[in-house]
Specification:
Layout: H1 5-13, H2 21-51, H3 58-87, H4 94-98, H5 101-128, H6 137-161, E1 162-165, E2 168-171, H7 176-222, E3 226-230, H8 236-246, E4 256-260, E5 270-275, H9 280-322, H10 331-356, H11 358-367
Parallel strand pairs: 3-4
Antiparallel strand pairs: 1-2, 4-5
């Protein structure tokens, strides 16, 4: 949450822009649905990982950290946000909550961004540098502690300037430049820098996966060729000569090719595979490639949704500080939309895990004692 959010909310509460009862009901309904989905989904994510021994990996522990951030956002921020909409412009929560509520929202958002960056670096290390050892449990714990510590340090100035003023929790910055600098700093460390790190890491991972796929294709082609027949009417000696040219012995794989006489020039005739058998090495490498590709698809979707969901709120912060957002007639609607998008980000990840990962689907169903079986396999 932005450093100037309290001022924005105060401006909105004093605005004369009418808001229909239907719009308020729609807002509260959306908040309720997001709250229920986020709380249930993120609790299930934590339970599935912690109760499934083979899912207790460094990447999944980072996913637990991400789920805890989203769960904190839902439990701490959504109920109080709805209460403040009802009591606005008064602040009924006391001075302690004034220094906790909005900073906590900023804290968990920072932590989510840092965790997504850490997950991308973990994938980069595992795919691009597979010879390096994976993070240990201790190293993963250190990463999680660092994400929360750095997020807390970033939000500390915001918490210190919040005070009860005229019955509302508002900010009291020592200089107007300070709030602008803090807003820009939050945009960089909460949004721009994490997305830059993630983009670099996943770009390198994508290139590595493409190279692996190309290498597997080359290995398949070069692992063994056996020509057994041609459609052209050549002499036996010509066939034997061609067979020697195009055949490579291999104890583990055999490919059968048919020579197609589609051109009058023998040099343009092509070999077409009729049969191909994968080696155990091929199968193992293909399985690893498919697994990494599926993981990448899921994580990229998580990051894309984070970028999309937080973008409106980032626009609000920057527009308010460096533009004239407060004079825009649809100011409050944009603010509400930005808040809803931030909350949506806290509930979409469990839905993605369930939709794109078989282990999470099975774990969710096992905990909920559901007998539904997924129609396809997506293993992580």
């Amino acid at each position: 949450m932005t450093s100037n959010l309290t001022d924005i909310r105060k401006s909105v509460s004093n605005s004369t822009e009418p808001q229909s009862a239907c719009l308020q009901i729609a807002e509260y309904t959306i908040f309720t649905a997001i709250f229920l989905i986020s709380v249930a989904g993120n609790i299930l994510v934590c339970l599935v990982i912690l109760k499934t021994p083979r899912m207790r990996t460094t990447r999944n522990y980072l996913l637990v950290n991400l789920a805890v951030s989203d769960l904190t956002m839902s439990l701490l921020c959504i109920p109080f946000d709805v209460a403040l909409k009802i009591t606005s412009p008064l602040w009924p929560l006391g001075s302690i909550m004034c220094n906790i509520l909005w900073p906590a929202m900023t804290l968990v958002t920072n932590c989510s961004a840092a965790t997504l960056a850490a997950i991308s670096l973990d994938r980069y290390r595992a795919v691009v540098h597979p010879w390096k050892p994976r993070f240990t449990s201790f190293q993963t714990s250190v990463i999680i502690v660092v994400t929360w510590s750095v997020s807390f340090m970033l939000v500390l100035p915001y918490a210190l300037v919040l005070k009860i003023q005229n019955g509302y929790c508002a900010e009291d910055w020592p200089h107007p430049v300070a709030v602008k600098a803090y807003t820009v700093g939050l945009f960089i460390f909460q949004y721009a820098l994490p997305l830059l790190i993630i983009t670099f890491a996943y770009t390198m991972v994508g290139r590595k996966l493409r190279h692996q796929a190309a290498r597997i294709a080359r290995n398949r082609y070069a692992s063994g060729v056996l020509v057994v027949g041609y459609s052209s009417m050549k002499s036996n000696c010509q066939q034997n000569a061609m067979s020697e040219v195009y055949s490579v012995s291999s104890p583990s794989v055999a490919r059968v090719f048919e020579f197609k006489n589609t051109f009058s020039d023998p040099a343009k005739r092509e070999l077409v595979p009729l049969k191909f058998e994968k080696t155990p090495c091929d199968k193992k490498e293909m399985k690893r490639l498919e697994r990494n590709t599926k993981i990448m698809k899921m994580l990229v979707m998580v990051v894309l949704l984070y970028a999309i969901c937080l973008l409106p709120n980032q626009v609000v912060w920057l527009w308010y500080e460096f533009g004239n957002l407060q004079n825009w007639p649809h100011f409050s609607k944009l603010l509400t939309f930005g808040s809803i998008m931030v909350y949506i980000n806290s509930c979409v990840n469990p839905l993605l895990y369930a939709g794109m990962n078989e282990d999470f689907r099975k774990g969710f169903c096992r905990i909920l004692r559901c007998r539904w079986k997924p129609p396809f396999m997506t293993r992580v």
